[in-house]
Design brief:
This protein is mostly helical. The protein is built from 7 helices and no strands.
């Protein structure tokens, strides 16, 4: 069997292979930097990944990179930048017709609002994520989002000294 026969068909095309391998290399670099706590370097690596993906006209990888950049900005407590990155990722995933990814980005948006002390905005984002996951029949995703939905309420209840 030729070597190319064992590869997915998308990797048989050199342009597609370049997209996959280039994107993976920069994502891996950024992920390692993120785990090391080198957030500025991780953000720079994700931004470079986004730029390269744009040059390769890889819309999906740009969307993924924007979502990941938003997560780094959340870790840096740069909430407006995190929200902007997630909004752009969400719009790109909508254009790509990937509702599951849109749901994930809505959940990440909720997490930004939650950490920024905006429980109502967090709840709204979580509910949008949940609605998509219900429509898709993603039971595990629904459970995860419902768990997140409980957190802003708990935070408010603790602040108000209301028993939960």
């Amino acid at each position: 069997m030729p070597a190319s026969a064992s590869r997915p068909s998308s990797l048989s095309d050199p342009a597609e292979a370049q997209k996959v391998w280039c994107g993976a290399a920069f994502r891996n670099k950024a992920t390692v930097l993120l785990y090391l706590g080198r957030l500025d370097e991780a953000a720079a690596a994700y931004e470079e990944n986004i730029q390269r993906a744009g040059q390769l006209e890889d819309s999906r990888q740009v969307a993924v990179g924007k979502g990941q950049l938003g997560n780094v900005r959340l870790s840096q407590r740069r909430y407006p930048e995190a929200l902007a990155a997630h909004a752009e990722a969400r719009q790109r995933f909508i254009a790509l017709d990937e509702p599951g990814s849109v749901a994930v980005i809505w959940q990440q948006t909720g997490m930004v609002h939650q950490q920024a002390g905006q429980p109502q905005a967090a709840e709204e984002a979580y509910r949008k994520s949940l609605a998509i996951k219900v429509r898709l029949g993603d039971v595990a995703g629904q459970a995860n989002t419902l768990n997140q939905l409980g957190r802003p309420w708990k935070t408010q209840a603790i602040r108000a000294k209301i028993p939960v």
